[in-house]
Description:
Elements: H1 4-39, H2 50-57, H3 61-69, H4 76-94, H5 102-108, H6 114-125, H7 129-140, H8 146-154
Helix pairs in contact: 1-3, 4-6
Amino acid sequence: METLEENLNSIQNAVEDESNENIQKYNFLFGKVKQVIEEESYFKEADFTISKLATILNTNNVYISKAIKLNSYTNFNHYLNTCRVNNVKKLIQENDLNKITLMYIYTASGFSNQSTFNRVFKQIEGLRLLNIFKILISKYYKIPNKAFSAYLKES
């Protein structure tokens, strides 16, 4: 007959096994989330929601939220907006800024208006896009700014 301590250890091991299995399931789900949002570019849709994602993946909002949180994002909107901001930085880096507008940049990245874009960009990046444009102008006129080059390469 098992002792109380052996029973408790057995229960704890079963809980840990179940927890590890759940983490694997959530990581697998996050891979699917990432595929839909990033690789299939759903982040570019201004009205994309967690409910639409759940429908696409045939799961529910709660599972998606847990998967996203386990991958170091605060919530669905934080993850979605991070993808959008990364796309903004990519567009800035890849395009001639004399030929595109700020409106093109933020709408092509899934933001519906400039005020939301400005708020989210500052929240995620810690600085305003205006500051980045000042840096770009200094770069255009050959004023060295190693910090900005490193910043763009990080993303």
